[in-house]
Structure formats: C-alpha cells, structure tokens
Design goal:
By secondary structure, the chain is mainly alpha-helical. It has one domain. It has six helices and two strands, in the order ββαααααα. Strands 1-2 form a two-stranded antiparallel sheet. A hairpin with a 2-residue loop joins strand 1 and strand 2. Helix 3 runs antiparallel to helix 5 and helix 5 packs across helix 6. The longest helix has 31 residues.
C-alpha cells in the first residue's frame, strides 16, 4: 500500500507561513473519497423532492393499499394476511431501492460526472462505493420506516433472536449486491 503526502499551507503565523504535511495511506484516501461521494449522493436525495416521495411514501402507500383495501379479498387460512403481505412489500421495496444504484450511476455516466471524477486525484472505487453506501443508508431508513408501519398494520415478526438479526441482514445484503 502506498502512502501519499499532501502539503497544505496554513495562515500566516507571526510573519512566516507554516506548512503542514499529512501522510495517508491509499486506503485512507479511498475511504475519505467514498464518504465525500456518499454525502454528495445523499444531498441529491434531499434536494429532489420527487425522490423522497418515491422512496419513502410509495412503500407505505403499498402497505396501506394492500392491507386495508385488498386485504379482505384474499383468504390466507389461519395466518393473518398481513404476515404474508409484509415480507413481499419488504422485498419489493428493497428491489426498487437497489435499482436506484444502477440508475444513478448510469445517469452520472451520461451527464459526464464520472468523467470529471476521473480527472480528479481521487479513488476510482469511491464513485461506486459512495453511490452504494448512500443507497444502503437510504434503504436502511426506508426498511425501518416500513417496519414501523407494518407493525402498526398488524404485522407480527417471529419472536426468535436469530430471526431478528437475519431478516435485516438479508435485506441489507441484497441492497449491497
């Protein structure tokens, strides 16, 4: 692993300009670049209200629609309909959310943003990792919001400790994949 030294000048202190040197590994720079691009991609979400509506309101709307409008039309036997509904809504939400990564990268390629990033002294991994981390963060909040609405609609999760950990872990693994 290579180290990179960056020299920056600070304010003029007492008549002489002080120089600071900072040495970081390539991994540290890649992590820093990834976090910067993650912040950039999360700011896009906040600045485009239609993305917020599609991301957060659509899964809740599907839950309410299928639970209360169509819920009485489907017979599920002794198991509550909402316990069949919520896993499907979770999968649908995560799949829709994971497609945003590909769409966002394709949009950045088409508009020339990735070409601008290539001209900068930054990690090439950061473009993909920053987008993926931003989408993972967004989808984590969406799944948490959907879980709250599902519980309010009557969804009952299996009360085993292993299920409490594996269901969110599987959802997050699918988002990253």
């Amino acid at each position: 692993m290579t180290n990179t030294t960056v020299t920056t000048s600070t304010a003029n202190l007492g008549g002489s300009e002080a120089l600071q040197t900072e040495e970081r590994s390539a991994l540290a720079w890649a992590i820093s670049d990834t976090l910067v691009l993650t912040r950039r991609n999360l700011l896009h979400l906040v600045r485009q209200p239609q993305l917020l509506v599609f991301t957060f309101i659509q899964p809740v709307m599907f839950t309410l629609l299928f639970r209360y409008v169509f819920g009485g039309a489907i017979q599920t036997g002794s198991v509550a309909y909402v316990n069949f509904l919520m896993p499907g809504i979770f999968v649908q939400t995560v799949v829709f959310g994971s497609t945003a990564t590909g769409i966002g990268l394709a949009e950045d390629l088409a508009t020339g943003v990735v070409d601008r990033f290539r001209s900068l002294p930054m990690s090439r991994l950061a473009v993909l990792a920053g987008r993926t981390l931003a989408d993972l963060t967004r989808n984590t909040f969406v799944v948490a919001l959907l879980t709250v609405f599902g519980l309010r609609a009557g969804f009952q999760r299996v009360n085993l400790p292993a299920h409490r950990l594996t269901i969110p872990a599987c959802q997050e693994a699918f988002i990253i994949h």
